[in-house]
């Protein structure tokens, strides 16, 4: 990414330090909410409800996180984490599998109805789940899929973005590779497994990162269909931890839960930064 | 090992006919080069033999049996692609052995065959590398290796050298030819480069606009081009072609008179290869030299005739000519005159 | 674009495409069709029968002051979110672009908020501005400003805007940074030789070169503000006070699930569908243009 030459246009003594300073201020401001949440997750409830709360971590890290993970408010956070994990991985894997298969069919075959299917899939690009929540809810309820993983996952894998990404990628694979495979005696599925899939590794990984975060961060859908607390996902479960009425919220546990809710996606993004950025650029453009 | 017969093969894309009936018999072990400008249909013809394009009309026989409807894998062919088409995620050894793996050969046997082909192509050191880590020439060899490993009846080459630099191209040209004659495998080779065609072919087929203009040995085509197109396409620099009038055993154009075979009268196209011209103060052809290109062994002189027609001569050795002013008289042996029908472009003498 | 080579057969490709088609049909086309169908009816209060009203639900909605105010709220909200998410991002990207060697470190630090779910972001910001325990609210109080987003409509809007924009700054930063890195050095150097100073160069050379990225982000951020900020609003304000932060998507939810007014909710879904359609068309027009550059 970084350019190799650093000429006089780029840097000058004072200006450089000023730039660093502004950048650091920017990072601190952006980071502050996360820092504050972390601090709150390591202090006691009285320290928080007596403003101002401290800005440096306390010594209650283990107690607060143990409380959150194993008892929580309505349900142990560990359960919600597991639910989120199943949902996020289910959505990511499910979408990738059905998209790979349908993109392969659309790009490498000519079959009756191909164009119609292509446009049908294309249309699904246009409609976020938020817009069709009521009827989709009724479908799920009709199938008896409320409070189930399949109810959490299936409506969210009906989207075309991944199919389009793979289609774009398959179109850039040189025709000669498929021809060489045919001359080598490979049939369609053999070509898919032996050549196309291994070549798509990076795209699959990049897409997985994006879809994992997409799935993990879902809020409205799990809110609607998981009425049973043991099926709550962590992102929607935090809000359920706030007491109704005038009771005081259990802030240290809630903030510990918030931190726990962001750890998996943040770890994925930071550790797979290159893939993540690639996936972002690919899937949006 | 194998013969390939094309019997009036045609190819249509929708309403447009891109191959207009080509017939060719390739003998066992023969190296046939299909040569022509881009868009002439040469690659399409090869891809039909490979089974990558369907044949619209006509019959293809490999070893005497009809192959029109066989899958590529069932035709007992191997193909070398222009961009090599190596599987990027597989090592050299895996690339070469993939076809055998699909055919279900036991692993040790695959390894032995790959090792043998690698030895032949001096790829043994590179077997574990990925295509990305290879140079252009090495990739070319791997593509060859992939073809050889399967010991096919027929090799198909689709412009395999066009992505290499000039020096490597000459070297690979020799290697391919040497390998082919050592293995004795029937080969069809597509190229747009007439030098490749001349140097490699046992026989060549000159294609233009979906039609086979001429089929013959390189020297046949050079010495007795059947059509104006073949005459101009083969040979470098390209043959001079001049509109002339034949009359009672003589050819006239722009005040020049040359001897002609008897029995031809009326307008003809006259072809003179630049390298057949020699300087002669009494020569019948006078050219105005505009530009000289000294190549060392010979010199190319570009200019025009008195009639204004562009003209090129290739003279041995170094000729220092003042461009623009110099006028030069040239002569040519009568047997080196090529005459073509002015309308059909077919050879008449 | 089409492939030259294809494999033969029609049964296999139909099987390959079937999972996606079936899932799209059951969870997408059927519900979307249902939304359109339901928007033409008014169910009785017990949900036992419903009466066909044609476009009655739409007429009612367009005359409904609450719905119209939700439209205005959405417009204000999405404009503010887009600006708040893009301007700081561009500023940070320009700074990072000058720091050739350490840009990667800053990028890693700035990516974090993108991974944080909007709903979690809502909780974090709610915590800072909570009227009882919020640190920022408390310091504002010390400065003599009485922060209360539970009662004050403007403050509520400000809070959901900032909380919604926060994670998007990371996202926009990544795209702006990549675009800045792609600006050819020679152009910058030519401008420098022409005597343009940094900010002059930025406004006359760099910014115009960034315009495709800027336009793309504009559309994407508007779509985000429209549809993906539900979690922020639900956690922080619940659409209040007095509907001040009720955007269109939130109203589909509150009318459909809280108010149980299915006909109206479905009609709202259909209107949103049209809005998404228009935004998609805009986006594709833009992509087409890019391809033809």
TrEMBL record, chain A:
Family indicated by similarity: Belongs to the binding-protein-dependent transport system permease family.
Identification of the protein by name: sn-glycerol-3-phosphate transport system permease protein UgpE
GO terms classed as biological process: transmembrane transport
Gene: ugpE
Keyword Oxidoreductase appears in the UniProt entry: no
Function, as annotated: Part of the ABC transporter complex UgpBAEC involved in sn-glycerol-3-phosphate (G3P) import. Probably responsible for the translocation of the substrate across the membrane.
This protein's GO CC annotations: plasma membrane
Highest rank taxon of the organism: Bacteria
Oligomeric and partner information: The complex is composed of two ATP-binding proteins (UgpC), two transmembrane proteins (UgpA and UgpE) and a solute-binding protein (UgpB).
Domain ABC transmembrane type-1: residue ranges: 81-272
InterPro entries xref list: MetI-like (IPR000515), MetI-like_sf (IPR035906)
Transmembrane segments: 21-43, 85-109, 116-137, 149-170, 251-270
Membrane topology: Multi-pass membrane protein
Cellular compartment(s): Cell inner membrane; Cell membrane
TrEMBL record, chain B:
GO biological process terms held by the UniProt record: carbohydrate transport; glycerol-3-phosphate transmembrane transport; glycerophosphodiester transmembrane transport
GO CC annotation: ATP-binding cassette (ABC) transporter complex, substrate-binding subunit-containing
Residue span(s) of domain ABC transporter: 4-234
PROSITE patterns the record matches: ABC_TRANSPORTER_1 (PS00211), ABC_TRANSPORTER_2 (PS50893)
Entry keyword set: ATP-binding, Cell inner membrane, Cell membrane, Membrane, Nucleotide-binding, Sugar transport, Translocase, Transport
Xref: InterPro entries: AAA+_ATPase (IPR003593), ABC_transporter-like_ATP-bd (IPR003439), ABC_transporter-like_CS (IPR017871), ABC_transpr_MalK-like (IPR015855), ABC_transpr_MalK/UgpC-like (IPR047641), Mo/tungstate-bd_C_term_dom (IPR008995), NA-bd_OB-fold (IPR012340), P-loop_NTPase (IPR027417)
Higher taxonomy: Bacteria, Pseudomonadati, Pseudomonadota, Alphaproteobacteria, Rhodobacterales
GO molecular function: ABC-type transporter activity; ATP binding; ATP hydrolysis activity
PANTHER family in UniProt: MALTODEXTRIN IMPORT ATP-BINDING PROTEIN MSMX, SN-GLYCEROL-3-PHOSPHATE IMPORT ATP-BINDING PROTEIN UGPC
Family: Belongs to the ABC transporter superfamily.
This protein's name: Carbohydrate ABC transporter ATP-binding protein, CUT1 family
Keyword Nucleotide-binding (UniProt): yes
Taxonomic source organism: Roseovarius lutimaris
Classification via SUPFAM superfamilies: MOP-like, P-loop containing nucleoside triphosphate hydrolases
From TrEMBL, chain C:
CDD domains xrefs: TM_PBP2
Function: Part of the ABC transporter complex UgpBAEC involved in sn-glycerol-3-phosphate (G3P) import. Probably responsible for the translocation of the substrate across the membrane.
Protein name (record): sn-glycerol-3-phosphate transport system permease protein UgpA
Keywords attached to this entry: Cell inner membrane, Cell membrane, Membrane, Transmembrane, Transmembrane helix, Transport
Similarity section: Belongs to the binding-protein-dependent transport system permease family.
Pfam families, alphabetized: BPD_transp_1 (PF00528)
Gene Ontology biological process: transmembrane transport
Membrane topology: Multi-pass membrane protein
